[in-house]
Amino acid sequence: MLKNISMVLCLCFTLIIGLTIPSQGLNAAGGDFSGTGGFSGTVLKTHMVGEAPKFILAEFYGATKNDAGSGIFDNMSFNCAFSIEVPKMPSTEGSGYCTFTDMDGDTVTFRAIAKGTLGVGSDATYKFVNGTGKYDGITGRGTYQTTNVKAAAPGTFQGFVAFQGNYKTP
Q1: Which of 33, 116, 142, 168 gives 20 to 30 Å between its CA and that of 128?
Q2: Rounded distance between C-alpha atoms, residue 140 and residue 48, angstroms
């Protein structure tokens, strides 16, 4: 009998703890997250030095999926504007802003700084700078890695992104 009571108490404790600890990406007030996405973009302007670009202005669009299946960055579309320098071919250094929109129309914007290899991909760090709706007052930061694929058409680029980070809302 005592053993049964212990098992019931243990089960109740486990359920209570399990229900109070949010799953990754589900906590509206914040937490850690990770996910993947795809993007496509257009080169808006280049400044060439000989045969090599020295400066690229680019805009890209895409969509993300949170690994948890819900929460921030799950089923969100995004638009980014970046300036990319090519200090020494093929190395790149860039910075820009990305705004993400969820299914409710709420947005979150971050500023990113990236380093990479032209046509291959980049590693970046980002910091949240603005949010609307449920993301109003958002703070946090993270990293992402992009991997480019063969361009579908001249002057465009496509690829995949893997991201991770943390956030908090008031």
Answers
A1: 116
A2: 36
